[in-house]
């Protein structure tokens, strides 16, 4: 089968899934963005991208959930809902199917989120300055 470049209307739907994965999007919403019927959209999307629209959206959500598990200490339930999924049980099942480990076990394989804590540059500069005293303080300390 020859590769067929995706049409702009399919890319519009794919971009919607990428940008708003955390919202309660469904195949109907993506089809509406592509201005196609649901059945025709699903068929064309699968032909162009090699997976169903639902599968693509779920993959985006699971990828974001994996990043949140690696980089934050938020609860699994909170992550589940923040990426647009409605059921922690379904999230755990889908995550385990995709990554071959449960979300909790996946998180345990990475360093704690505190190791990734970013310190604002202004704080780094303030504490990174030399701790020398000024000219007048130096002379006053010697006189005392």
List the helices and strands and how they pair.
Blueprint: H1 8-19, H2 27-34, H3 38-49, H4 53-71, H5 76-82, H6 88-99, H7 103-108, H8 121-128, H9 135-143
Structure description:
Helix 1 (8-19) crosses helix 2. This protein is elongated. The chain is built from nine helices and no strands. The mean pLDDT is 85. The chain is mainly alpha-helical. 65% of the residues lie in helices and 0% in strands. The protein has one domain (8-111): Arc Repressor Mutant, subunit A (Orthogonal Bundle), CATH 1.10.10.60. The chain starts with 7 loop residues before the first helix and ends with a helix.
Please name the defining characteristics of this protein:
elongated, Arc Repressor Mutant, subunit A, 144 residues, 9 helices, 65% helix, 0% strand, mainly alpha
Alpha carbon gap, first and last residue = 89 Å
Level-2 CATH architecture: Orthogonal Bundle
Q: β content, as a range?
A: under 5%
Query: Would you count the extended β strands for me?
Result: 0
Mean pLDDT: 85
Structural class: mainly alpha
Low-confidence stretches: none
CATH topology: Arc Repressor Mutant, subunit A
Largest sheet: none
**Which geometry do the CA atoms define?**
elongated
Number of helices: 9
Task: List SSEs in N-to-C order.
Answer: HHHHHHHHH
Query: What is the fourth-level CATH superfamily?
Result: Homeodomain-like
Radius of gyration, rounded?
Answer: 25 Å
Helix content: 55-70%
Give the count of structural domains.
1
CATH class: Mainly Alpha
